[in-house]
Each structure stands twice: as structure tokens, then as C-alpha cells.
Amino acid sequence: MIPVEFRGYAWRHAGRRAQAVTGVDLRVEPGERVLLLGPSGSGKSTLLAALAGLLTEDAGDQDGEVLLDGKSAADQRGRVGILFQDPETQLVMARAGDDVAFGLENQAVPRGEIWPRVHDALRAVGFPYGPDRDTHALSGGEQQRLALAGVLARRPELILLDEPTANLDPEGAQGVRDALRAALAETDATLIVVEHRVADILDLVDRVIALGPGGTPIADGPAARVLADHGDALAAQGVWVPGAPLPHRPGGTPGDTALRGDGLALTYPGAARPALDGVTFELRQGELLAVTGPNGSGKSTLALLAGGLAKPDAGTATVPGERRPLHRLPARRLATRVGSVFQDPEHQFVTATVRDELAFGSKQAGWPKDRIDARVAELLDRLRLAPLAEANPHTLSGGEARRLSVAGALAAAPGVLLLDEPTFGQDRRTWGELVDLTADIRDEGTALLAVTHDRDFAAALGARELALENGRTAGEVPC
Amino acid sequence: MPTDSTAPAAPGRWRTVDILTCAVLAVAFGVVFWAWNFVWAGLDPVLAFLPPLKGILYGVWLIPAVLAPLIVRRVGAGLLTEALAATVSALLGSVWGVLVIYQGLLQGLGGEIAFAAGRYRRFGTATAVAAGALACVAATLFDVVVWYPDTALWAFKIPYIAFAALSGAIVAGLGSKALVAAMLPTGVLDRFPAGRERARI
Amino acid sequence: MLTFAPVCGPDAPIARANPVAKLAAVALVTVVALVAGDWLTPLLLLAAMLIVLPFTGIRARPLARRLRWLWLAAGTVVIVNALFAAEQTGRILLTLGPVAIGSGALLDGVAIGLRVCVAATAGVLVFATTDPTDLADALTQQLKAPPRFTIGSLAALRLLPLLGAEWNQITTARRARGLEGGWNPVRRTRLFASTMFALLVGAIRRAGRLAAAMDARGFDTEIPRTHAREQRMRPGDWAVIALAAGAAAAAVAVSVAAGTFTV
Ligand SMILES: Nc1ncnc2c1ncn2[C@@H]1O[C@H](COP(=O)(O)OP(=O)(O)OP(=O)(O)O)[C@@H](O)[C@H]1O
Ligand SMILES: Nc1ncnc2c1ncn2[C@@H]1O[C@H](COP(=O)(O)OP(=O)(O)OP(=O)(O)O)[C@@H](O)[C@H]1O
Ligand SMILES: [Mg+2]
Ligand SMILES: [Mg+2]
């Protein structure tokens, strides 16, 4: 149990001119459960990193101070546990059990106590494998659980969680939240959690702190009161206030076939079962097909094969007017027919600035310069990336990176677009912009396939649904 | 003529990010080393007319010994990275077996001499070139003593070392300098002294 | 894929020996092979390794696959040393224009070639049978190596199998964005180079994030770490070292007795 205090705190990341957070004066009492809200890019992850003592002077410039139990955060790392926004980068060891044990070794827990605590933590988060499981052969959801076990096993007095359920399927997310609830019931640790979808997490917290777009707190207090008193203002800033109306942009009548997948199948090397096992679908101009299903059901694999980016073991993906299947088209040609957005945005970036990334596709397609500039300017503005135009894509916040990768594909405007989880990590406002942008290009006749766990997104766009399970089609229904 | 940049002497203890950066560079280059072993073996018949010319391929093996110190600017960075990269290539299966680790240590030391001569304050082109050449000389000295002891001094040993030193100066020295310059705009060096001078956005 | 394909099961005797003991044994043998200049010593050392092989639990086929390249390297060394020998001693065996190879020079070359064989075989015996985690544990526990450096290196080593996957991701991303070398060799080379560079930059970026993840779990504090897995020097491990020392001494003794030993 540690009291947390920010005094006139401000932080500027190295390489950036603007401060990520400024004027933060906050106190969190021991044992409080706090939800940290704010639009994408407002500095939520930055504040958590500061509390975890990870923002040292070599990483940027600091004003004011952040105190844990009256002492500098960097000296209190042993008492804090943090779950990062991106689970993939926080696993340290090659085996699951060693990874959980790593944090305990650092705390000088005696050997006899380490393994019982490791087993307890793995059980508490519902990790489905034993401690010898390879950490690089885990799906996103499993990584998240393991990372959470690594945090809880250390019995931290301050728990920091950054979007603990982003990228999980709805059941998986519920599972992680249940694990969390059970773990929290057993400790009186202080909790600070970041989550965009307020409704999901509200029962775990008793206080809400909202950051404004500039990284300064704009509302603070008991959850119910903050949402009641400031609901409208927060919604305008981009917070997902429960009950606020969502946009509705159903599509018109779809046109001709734009992409066909016939019996697509793929087994990854060394895998026991096929990731995709004979899926057939048709995508038409001016429609949105939402691909849904639990974690690991083969959705991303389907997107990869449909986009001609991997060679299927069986089946073909074709577009009208091309005799060859997509995976055999030369890249230049492929890029003019089909655009793909990957699940992990960072895997997609090929240039060194946000602006170049947006201009890249249309440049390849040979657009005239003024048309490229106009489109880039529009996207920068609508997706709130304009101040970051010259930044490196890899230094963006989670939500910013997602928007950039989607916008990069939208900018090139090929006839078919395949989007893998286009809306994760977005605040309410940028989410709305993404819905509108998607609806706009759909209504211009583009055929869209979106892999998504986001029911609101599919509903807002009136998507047709293709449900997958274990690599097979589980159902095809209009949403 | 580019001038040597002066940076504050590397003070105190290594940060975790320094250790990890050296180690990750070593892993990446360990794979390169391992692949380069095949190039080295494969080019044998081609270079059979003048075996000392093989020294020219050497530079690639010395990049970590120069690149790592240029990035993290700490005492021993070249030694650590080069030796670790050699170990990784041994883990992957190197024809030179454990000996490649001894050699890695020696190469790393060779590079360190150049940085130590600049008291770990000079990380310019001249230092990088010297480090690459010295690391190569250390490596090929080991080679001629251990692997080619019976060859003639002037027909093989001297030209072999000379070719290798040239290769080290160009590939490892200038190459590392160019790599660092190319990495600057990517922002990965922001937490290191080398990345500090970049313009803010 | 880049993984250390193991040449033995996890329960093989050699896999369970203390890594530090194995390293010490191999260091002993290779140093002797380095110092000895004759052909008999390395040959005996090689024979000794072949003799212990059946007791180690190593499977023959993967071992042979691993050692395949060794013969090539050994061959090179023999040729270079014979061709460029300071003087072609002994009976001239072969003349090709200006090039001549004498029997003495060839024998010296073979000695060096055997040295390569010893080094490579010993390397496979220790590295292909050691789990990196065990190695790091033993280095910190038995040799008191600085834990921040050993554990940091171990964490980086975990990225090794991921490099191949990362490479695939980068090329897939490029294909999606319309970048591909095609048949043009210049374009292909340039794309290859830029993919390598992207991989390197990605690796350094990962290093930074991994460092943050480790620090966040209390890695960089003054508290002395404990060890979840204990590594000990058991009597068997001492025996491994003693055996290596014995074999090395015997090889040298035999070679001295036979009158071939030189340094
Ligand atoms: N390593 C970094 N280098 C430079 N700038 C950064 C870095 N990390 C974050 N930023 C910038 O700091 C600001 C705040 O980022 P932060 O990640 O804290 O936002 P966030 O509120 O967590 O957003 P999201 O909801 O999208 O995750 C953003 O403008 C981001 O671009
Ligand atoms: N590169 C890979 N190598 C081996 N197996 C893989 C690879 N990528 C995915 N898999 C496996 O293939 C299956 C399908 O994976 P896929 O990524 O398509 O799932 P998904 O439906 O997109 O899941 P999520 O909702 O978590 O993104 C999973 O069991 C996964 O573990
Ligand atoms: Mg964030
Ligand atoms: Mg997926």
C-alpha cells in the first residue's frame, strides 16, 4: 500500500518538442482503485510509466516530481507492478514459469517460496499451460494472462494496468477481468488502471481521473459522480461515457463481387492443427464484412491469405480481372488491388515519419503530388495526428499507431481493404472518425473486410458477419 | 572532413538498456556471423588463386566491436558485444567451435584499444576506423597463430592481415559509422548519447 | 528456422551436467589442442571425444548434421597451410606449375585441420546440449558472473528464434505496401539491405522495451537476486572435468612418448 503523489509533474519524451503530460497534481491514497481515462495520446501510458519509475532522465525531461510513499519512483520499483499496453514486449524469459519467477528472483524471494508463488499466480490468472510452456508460442490473450501473473506474483503494493484487455475476445477479456477481480479481492494494493471502454471496468474501481488532450487532469472523483457531473464534457473529449449514443452508418446495397476466397486453408510450420481450414467467402463492392471469433480462431490468418500475403496450403483468393490468385501477383500490382492493415500496427510501418507513412501508398500508386498532399492533410487532421506529422511511427502511443496504420491503407484507396482490428485502443472520438472514414470509403464503393472483436464497430456500420471458430466458418449472418 | 564528436565520458554503471542493447546487437550479429561462416567456406574455391584475399571478407565479423561502443559509449561495450556475438554463433553451430569465443574476446579487445586511446570521449570516424582495423588485426593475428602457423610470412601472413585490416577499417569502421547515422532518424538511439543531438519534433 | 535444434533429449546425461563443468572440460581440451602443434595430440583428443559419445546420450544423426560443415572448414585449413607453407619440406607429392606440395607441409596442414575438428566437435558437445537458461544460472551461481550481464544476455537470447519471424513480418509488410524486389537483382539487393536494416533497428527497439520490462520487475536494484533454479557442482560434474583433464594429459603423454609432440 503506497500513497501516490504527483506534484506539478510534467514530462517531455526525448525527441519531442511537446510535453506528453503537464501540470499533474494528484494524490492517490493507499488502497484506492482508480480508473485513468483520457483521449488517445493524452499521456495515460506515460503517467503509468512515471509511476513505475521507468521515466529516467535519459528518456526525456521532467518537471515537478512523482513520489511513492514520499520517495522518488525510481527507487520504489520493487514495490510496483505494471502491465504494459503491449503484452508481447514484456515477457522476459523463454519459459512461462521462469518468466513469472524472474520478478521474484529480483525481489530476493527465497528459492523455496518462489515456485509455489509462481504456480499460484499462473492458476489465479487462468493460464492454460504448465510452467514449461514456451513464451513465444502464445496467442495475444495468453501472453496477457502470463504478463498479469508476472505482476501479481510479486505482490506489488501498487498495481498499474494499461488497457489489460485490449485485443482480447469478449470472453477472454471477461476472463482476465474476473481473474483480476479475484486477485484484487485478496490484496489491499492500490490500483490504477487505464481503459477506454469505461463500462467494462467500472465495477473494479471507485475513483475516476480523466486527462484532457494536453495531458492535464480535467476531472477527478468518485466514478459515478464524475460520469454524472462531467459526462457530456468527457464524452466531447473522447471518453467512452456509458450510455452516450453511438453513430449509425448502415451501408447501401452491395455491388459486384470484389474479392473471393475459395476453401482457404493454412497450417503454420510446426503447428499441430491448421490455423485456417477451408474457409470460403465473397466480398462485394460497397459492403463491410466483419470477421469475428475467439482469440486464435484464424481471423488474422484469413486476412493474410485473403490479402495475398501468404501462400495458402489449399484454396485461392482472387479478384475479378486478375487471372492469377492474389498470392502470386507481384507486390506492386497487388498493392493497387488490395490493401491490408495488420493486427500489430508496428509490423506495417515502412517509413520513418507519420507523413511519409500516409503518403506512401498513394505515391506508389502514382498519384499527382497535390492530390497526395490534400489527402494526407485531411487524414492527419481527421485522425488527430497533425501535430505528430514528423514523428517516427514507432514512437506513437498505442492508439495513435493503430490510427496511423489504418489511415495509411485508407489513403491509398485500393478497391479492396482488409483491416485487422482497426479500432482497438481508440477513444470515443477517434473511434467515431474511424467509423466515418470507413463508412465513407465503403459508400464510395470500396469492399471492406474487418477482423474485429469490437461489436459496436460492426453494429455501427451495419456489417455482415462471418464468424470463425477453430479455423472454420461457424456462421454467416447479417449483423 | 568530419570531426570527432566529443561526448561526456561514460560515467558509472551500465543501465539495463545498455546491457540489453549490446546483447540484442550480439544476438542479431551472431546470426549474421553464423551465416557469414557459410559465405567464408563457400568462397574458398573462388579465392583459391589467392587465399590471403580472404582477409577482405573479415570486416563483417567485426561490426559489433565498433557499432556497440559507438551506440552505448561505455567501457567494454565492444568486448561484451563481440564476445557474445561469437558465443551466439557457437550456439548456432560454428565450425570454429569454442575457439570462436576466444577469438571474439580478442577481437573485442582489439576494438577497445582504439576507444580507450580516445579515453572513451572520442567516437568519430577516425576512432571508428581505427577500432575496426585494430579488431581485425587482433582477429587475424589469432588466425595466423592458431590456424595458419606453417604458412609463409610474406606470401600469406602479412598480406592476409593487411587485407583484413583494410576490410575492418572500411566495413566495420566506416560501416558502423554509417549504420549509426542511418539509425538516428529512426529514433531508436534517443536514449543514448549518440541520439541526443537529433532535432526535436 | 533459427533455433538450436537439440542433439539430445533433456534427460540425456550430458544435458544434465552442470554447464560450467562442461565449459571447463571443453576449455581444457581445446587449449591443449591449441598448444600442441603435432598431428597425434588432436587425433587422440578427437578419439577420446568419440569414445565418450555413447555415454552422453547424444543422438548420432543430428550430431552428424551439425558437424557436416566442419569437414569443409578443416579441408580449407589443410589446403591453405599446405599450399602456403613457409617451405615445402619432405618428399614433393604434387606439382602444379609453380605450386608444389611437400609431404612435410601436408602433414603440418593435417595437424591444423585436426585442430579444427577438435574445436568444432567440442563446441557442439557443449553448446548443442546446454539450455541457455541453465548456462546463465550456472554462470551466475558457480562462476559468480555479474547477474545483470548474464541475465540481460539471456533475455536477449530469447529473441533469437523470433528473428526469423520478424524477418517474415517485415517482408510481408513490404509486400502489402507494394515493395518487392522481383527479378531485378539491383532492386532485390537494395530491398534485402533495407530489410536487414529494418531488422536491426527493430532489434534495438526491442532491446529498449525489454529493458523497460525488466526494470519494471525490479531487475536493476541493489538487492542481491535469488535463483529460482539451483545449479550445483555434483560429483559427476567434477568427474567430467577430471575426465577431460585426464584425456588431455594422456593425449600429450602418448604423443610425447611417440616422439611427435611439438608446440
Ligand atoms: N517513446 C516515445 N517517444 C516519443 N514520444 C512518445 C513516446 N511514447 C509516447 N509518446 C508521445 O507522448 C504522448 C502520450 O503518449 P501515451 O502513450 O502516454 O498516450 P496514451 O494516453 O497512453 O494514448 P493511447 O490511449 O493511444 O495509448 C503521445 O503524443 C505520444 O505520441
Ligand atoms: N506465425 C505463426 N506461427 C505459428 N502459429 C501461428 C502463427 N500465427 C498464428 N498462429 C496460430 O494459428 C492460430 C490462428 O491464429 P490467428 O492469428 O489467425 O488467430 P486470430 O483469430 O487472429 O486470433 P486473435 O483474436 O488473438 O488475433 C492460433 O492458434 C495461433 O496460435
Ligand atoms: Mg497508452
Ligand atoms: Mg488476430
Layout of SSEs?
The complex is a heterotrimer of chains A (479), B (201) and C (263).
Chain A: E1 4-13, E2 21-28, E3 33-37, H1 44-51, E4 60-68, E5 71-72, E6 80-83, H2 96-106, H3 111-124, H4 140-153, E7 158-162, H5 170-185, E8 190-194, H6 198-201, E9 207-211, E10 217-222, H7 223-237, E11 257-266, E12 276-284, E13 288-292, H8 299-306, E14 314-318, H9 331-337, E15 338-341, H10 354-364, H11 369-382, H12 398-412, E16 416-420, H13 428-443, E17 447-451, H14 455-460, E18 464-469, E19 472-478
Parallel strand pairs in A: 3-8, 3-9, 6-7, 7-8, 13-17, 13-18, 15-16, 16-17
Antiparallel strand pairs in A: 1-2, 1-4, 4-5, 9-10, 11-12, 11-14, 18-19
Helix pairs in contact in A: 2-3, 2-4, 3-4, 4-5, 10-11, 10-12
Chain B: H1 16-42, H2 63-72, H3 77-93, H4 99-117, H5 125-146, H6 153-183
Helix pairs in contact in B: 1-2, 1-3, 2-3, 2-4, 2-5, 2-6, 3-4, 4-5, 5-6
Chain C: H1 13-16, H2 19-35, H3 40-56, H4 60-83, E1 92-96, E2 99-102, H5 103-127, H6 132-141, H7 147-157, H8 160-176, H9 185-216, H10 235-257
Antiparallel strand pairs in C: 1-2
Helix pairs in contact in C: 2-5, 2-10, 3-5, 3-10, 4-5, 6-7, 8-9
Strand content of chain C: under 5%
Name the CATH class of the largest domain in chain A.
Alpha Beta
Task: Outline the biggest β-sheet of chain C.
Answer: 2 strands, antiparallel
- For the residues shown, what is the average pLDDT of chain C? 82
**Overall SS class of chain C:** mainly alpha
Question: In DSSP terms, counting alpha (H) and pi (I) runs of 4 or more, how many helices of chain C?
Answer: 10
Largest sheet of chain A: 6 strands, mixed
The CATH homologous superfamily name of the largest domain in chain A equals: P-loop containing nucleotide triphosphate hydrolases
Average of the residue pLDDT scores of chain A: 89
Strand content of chain A: 15-25%
Query: What is Rg of chain C?
Result: 24 Å
Name the CATH architecture of the largest domain in chain A. 3-Layer(aba) Sandwich
Number of domains of chain A: 2
For this structure, the quaternary state is heterotrimer
The radius of gyration over CA of chain A amounts to 23 Å
**How many strand elements of chain A?**
19
Shape of chain A: globular
CATH topology of the largest domain in chain A: Rossmann fold
Shape label of chain C: flat
Low-confidence blocks of residues of chain C: none
Could you list the spans of chain A in which at least 5 consecutive residues all have pLDDT below 50?
Answer: none
